Amino acid sequence: MINFIPFQDHYITFHIREHNLIKDEIIQLIERENGKSVNESSDYIVTKQDYENSFNFEREYVQLLLPVIKNYIQRAFNEYMFLSNCTITNIWYHIYSKNDTYGWHIHDSVNWTGIYYLKLPKHAPKTDIKSLVKKNKVFTPKVKEGDVVLFPAHLHHRSKHLNTDEQKISIVFNLVNK
Known about the structure:
This protein has helices at 19-32, 60-81, and strands at 2-4, 12-15, 36-41, 44-49, 86-96, 101-105, 112-119, 127-130, 138-139, 147-152, 157-159, 168-177. It has one domain (2-177): Sandwich (Jelly Rolls). The chain is globular. It starts with a strand and ends with a strand. Helices cover 20% and strands 38% of the residues. It is α+β, with helices and mostly antiparallel strands and 178 residues long.
């Protein structure tokens, strides 16, 4: 099911019905990847990510996920944003461990950002997004494990400190309008 949130909040969410079928295999494939940690400051700490390889669509977990997720994305854009052709430009994962965080940032040179919540512990923080319309308003899309959120890439967003012992894993991707 796709939920359209009124335009002032600028995001779309949907659930991947195949999530329970692909989750464990994607996690196993990600664990075999040669990712790097991020520790730039107290605002940017990630246990493992593979952003440096984000334009490589031959990675095994990407090969497994893309055929599933592309149809949902295209349907969401066709039905709610009236865009008929969006292309994923790059895709990568983030593995967050306790106290990891990723501070406020944007994604330049693309139109849309998507986040697939592959593993989302019950009390783990979701993505915060700053409103473009209402100054100083921060909203947090209501998502659960297996959901995807799509939003304009120029909106500032973050992942607050993970406060649980269980890891959080998200797969992030960018899209452009063609």
